[in-house]
Amino acid sequence: MKARISHDAQGRRIAHDVCTEPCPIERGMRIIGGKWTGSILWHLRDGPVRFNDLARMIGGASKKMITERLRQLEAQGLITRHVLDTAPVSVQYQITATGLTAIGFLDEIRKWSESLREAGQP
User: Fold this and answer.
1) pTM of this prediction?
2) Nearest CA to 79 among 49, 109, 111, 120?
3) Residue 118 confidence (pLDDT)
């Protein structure tokens, strides 16, 4: 759908073809737009990572926040969780084939962000 605005005979604005449900961009942002979500997927792109190592890779995020995001990503089928048979018990996470489909545009966001920084923007 392509939403548009027109004017009636009295000059009032009227919206046509409005979104009645989240558009594809909004649906996508609901999946990967959460704070730290993109970073988690990015750090899992090269292979399985143990929880504590992942927490070290993502500076600034609390373990509680990382745990919440990991649970969401697992529920969405973007990562898998594996309990390792070690003492003490360890958990590692791995990106799924579906999760890997996000890496391409996350890389484009990374490049875009770096170009803004190089241009002197925050």
Assistant:
1) 0.79
2) 49
3) 86
